[in-house]
Amino acid sequence: MQGEPDGTSAATSTRTGGTASDGAGRGPGRFDVDGVTVRFGGLTALDSVSLFVDPGEVLGVIGPNGAGKTTLFNVVCGFIDPNEGVLRWRGERLEGLKPHKLAGLGISRTLQGVGLFAGMTVLENVMAGATSRAKAGFFSAALGLPGSDKDERSLRDRAMAILTDLGAAQVAGRYPGSLPFPVQKRVALARALVLEPDLLLLDEPAGGVGHDDMDELGDLIRHLSGTMAVMLVEHHMDLVMSVCDRITVLDFGKVIADGSPEQVRTDQAVLDAYLGADDEDGGH
To answer: 1-6+30-106+197-284 is classed in which CATH architecture?
Structure first.
């Protein structure tokens, strides 16, 4: 039941992870992880992992603690270079991918920590997420460069619209440190969305949020799938099962299952992996 990218990508071109022309290829596309292996010394954290995310699809990546989820997310975001395997986006091979190159590729991300700038307001934090696409951008506006006023107004309007959609417009003028953690998570998500990405990468978006906030998050993710692909790493199974079109399951760095929530829920390898993890936890 494992999901493997098809063989048609072998003849694709190669792209260095983010160049000045990356934005020219924007639009819906498929993201492939093909045969990725990551080793840390003698430890194999990922072992020939393959998965894909289709346009408009919500893919969930789950697995017991230590399964390799965080390592996989770090590879996809460009924090870790794999020892083997390739990443492909819109059929083009990505080489030397780095986190600061993602925006130019039409890819946006959130991390487990919110990563907001303490000295900037909520609105300024969200605006900063789109500077790679603005013609002059937020920092150009701060320097008073030509063309910056129009770009800043447009960017400010877009940022406020997203904060409104996420129910955070009322805190636009406040600083992140004065806000509860769930609200900070919304701001971090708004910063990712202001880029208007074609692929959104979410690392444990439900971490630290309450039940009501999680329900709203689920509704939002389902809504986003109409305009972008979403890949989320998450351990809250209720959220994953309710929002994902497809789920890839890792265990000990390997893909052990891939399919619909209904298929994964009853897959024996998945049940064994989670039951085994529960037994080990119970033994401590």
So the answer is: 3-Layer(aba) Sandwich (3.40)
